[in-house]
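Researcher: Here's a chain I'd like modeled. Treat it as a single chain, no partners, no ligands.
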Amino acid sequence: MNWNWNETAINLPYTFDNLKELLNNICNKKNNFSQYEFAKWCDNLTMTLDDDEADDLSERDELAFCVARDIECQWDLYLINTYSYKKLQTLDLSQVSLPQEWFLRWFEELNSF
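Model: Modeled as a single isolated chain. Structure tokens:
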């Protein structure tokens, strides 16, 4: 089944290796996509992996699921803890950036596999 939950400018399959590559690009500041696009891509990845039977996930996919879920959750928490409701109504989400050290930690987590 091929679902498209979030429209995103990142046109890559939802895999462990692509998550790792995208994180590497952000860590090295070589990304040509916004962190907002990346958060949506991560959300799609979690939904894709969640659609697969959880018992059938490989260890790599399980790790990718956990890291991607953390990224999309932290994105949402960052927005609501950083900006007022009124500001969020007009905020250009493509201009929002999470702390760089978070991406480095997530990348290290994927590399621990």
